[in-house]
């Protein structure tokens, strides 16, 4: 069976593909194909509408060197890297779409994928990109994991073999069937074998070719002290045409002033600023519920007292999360689900323990005991205000909090190393297939220090292979209930993302189906219909 898919309108969810694979017993699935004539027609018609001589200016900030081994682990660092490096699949407003892989087939048991690559893809140094590069990448990442590592699931590297059948055909074999493995493999950033095959320590490698990728833009300059980057359009790019001649991330002291002075082209505006732009003819407002949430990380390794579930539940009841929405997000947001999956997701279970603000319930759980903990936050205005309100709330139930603040990079490093008791962070990764819940609470996860739960790990594993949607939803519902009861970290609130830009200058900004930051999406910087 063969299906043709348009690069703009394709919806390919991992679950849907696997369900079809199971249904077609004894038959391989030809999941997607793009006609070269269709792609070129799309590119030509779109380029007539776009000014490719423009320079897009964005707010700067150091997010590390933009290759898969040296960028920071947060969204801005990942996004800059992904503009330079292509993957087998990409994502648009509806789901997964073909990219470096123009088509693929799946074995009947869903463990082997055969990808057919674009014929004319090149590296930024002019050398051709082949299936040998892709096969090398899957092998190299096993011994040299990138910062963002989708191939490690439940502590296991999921690819058992990757080999090039010819220059344009890649075969990837997985350790077992899983609903999400296509998306995970499809998101891997492909490396040039001729550069990385001789590199033993990729995190330390700083050669002139350390950022050579195959993406639509190439790195021209990077200044870590200023947090400044300059990318140039890659004129030999195989796919959709770059929408700009260059992208520059520039240092600014006041983002709103910089936007209004046309020093940058886009801002994520706070709620109190929206009236300033909503009625202005020069501005366009693009809003989306956030797939990010502020959360209070609880380190049970450094502070064993926090292993007591009653203390964690008391803190959850004792923090006025609605107050955080009103006073920090200025009403443009919502209280997060303690079961992790957002309330606006089709997979959300409304029957979970809700933890509405209740001082008396919190005190009852503490049984008259008092405690003192240190809370680390970044030094942003939003982070500091959130931390201060948490401190005031917890004081009312008998928990004293000492706030420590640091640069966001220092806070993020502490999150990785475990050098904290309580830590406040605003993190994403809560869009798309709900298997993201397994990366946080499943077996092998190191997100929550000093905590694990076998029942939760079992449910997380079982939902990932359940092809019946209603049965999977039931498993995910049970999983959310147990997570909310255990409350190993306290989900606080998410804000609404409100992006403002001048459409007369550039109108290509888009939201991916699983991500609410339009400046983080590769397709925002390419010419489309």
Automatic annotation (TrEMBL):
Pfam family, one: SBP_bac_5
InterPro entries for this protein: Peptide/Ni-bd, SBP_5, SBP_5_dom
Signal sequence, start to end: 1-31
GO molecular function, one term: DNA binding
Keyword DNA-binding: yes
Signal as UniProt keyword: yes
Residue ranges constituting the Solute-binding protein family domain according to the UniProt record: 96-443
Alphabetical keyword list: DNA-binding, Signal
Name listed for the protein in its UniProt record: DNA-binding protein
Native source organism of the sequence: Lacrimispora amygdalina
């Amino acid at each position: 069976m063969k299906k043709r898919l348009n690069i703009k309108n394709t919806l390919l969810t991992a679950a849907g593909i696997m369900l079809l694979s199971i249904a077609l017993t004894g038959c391989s699935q030809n999941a997607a194909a793009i006609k070269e004539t269709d792609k070129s027609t799309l590119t030509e018609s779109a380029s007539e509408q776009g000014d490719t001589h423009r320079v897009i200016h964005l707010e700067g900030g150091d997010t590390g060197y933009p290759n898969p081994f040296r960028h920071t682990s947060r969204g801005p660092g990942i996004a800059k890297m992904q503009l330079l490096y292509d993957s087998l699949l990409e994502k648009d407003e509806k789901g997964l779409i073909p990219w470096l892989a123009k088509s693929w087939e799946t074995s009947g048991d869903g463990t082997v994928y055969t990808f057919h690559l674009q014929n004319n893809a090149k590296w930024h140094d002019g050398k051709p990109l082949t299936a040998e590069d892709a096969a090398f990448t899957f092998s190299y990442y096993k011994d040299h994991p990138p910062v963002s590592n989708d191939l490690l699931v439940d502590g296991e590297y999921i690819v058992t073999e990757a080999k090039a059948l010819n220059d344009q055909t890649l075969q990837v074999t997985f350790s077992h069937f899983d609903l999400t493995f296509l998306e995970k493999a499809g998101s891997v950033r492909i490396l040039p074998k001729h550069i990385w095959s001789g590199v033993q320590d990729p995190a330390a490698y700083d050669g002139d070719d350390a950022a050579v990728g195959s993406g639509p833009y190439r790195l021209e300059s990077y200044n870590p002290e200023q947090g400044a980057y300059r990318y140039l359009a890659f004129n030999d790019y195989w796919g959709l045409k770059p929408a700009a001649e260059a992208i520059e991330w520039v240092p600014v002291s006041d983002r709103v002033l910089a936007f209004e002075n046309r020093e940058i082209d886009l801002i994520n505006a706070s709620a109190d600023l929206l009236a300033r732009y909503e009625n202005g003819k020069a501005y366009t407002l693009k809003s989306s519920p956030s797939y990010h949430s502020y959360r209070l990380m609880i380190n049970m390794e450094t502070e064993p007292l926090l292993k007591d579930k009653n203390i964690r539940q008391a803190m959850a009841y004792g923090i006025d999360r609605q107050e955080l929405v009103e006073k920090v997000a200025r009403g443009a947001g919502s209280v997060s689900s303690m079961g992790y999956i957002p309330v606006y997701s089709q997979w959300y279970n409304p029957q979970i323990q809700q933890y509405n603000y209740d001082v008396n319930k919190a005190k009852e759980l503490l049984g008259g005991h008092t405690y003192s903990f240190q809370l680390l936050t970044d030094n942003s205005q939003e982070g500091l205000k959130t931390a201060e309100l948490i401190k005031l709330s917890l004081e009312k139930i008998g928990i004293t909090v000492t706030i420590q603040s640091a640069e966001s990079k220092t806070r993020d490093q502490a999150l990785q190393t475990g050098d904290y008791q309580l830590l406040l962070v605003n993190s994403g990764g809560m869009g798309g297939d709900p298997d993201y819940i397994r990366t946080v609470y499943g077996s092998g996860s190191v997100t929550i220090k000093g905590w694990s739960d076998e029942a939760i790990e079992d449910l997380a594993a079982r939902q990932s292979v359940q092809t019946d949607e209603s049965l999977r939803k039931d498993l995910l519902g049970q999983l959310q209930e147990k997570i909310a009861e255990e409350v190993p970290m306290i989900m606080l609130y998410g804000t609404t993302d409100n992006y403002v830009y001048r459409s007369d200058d550039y109108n290509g900004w888009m939201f991916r189906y699983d991500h609410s930051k339009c400046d983080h999406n590769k397709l925002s910087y390419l010419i489309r219909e």
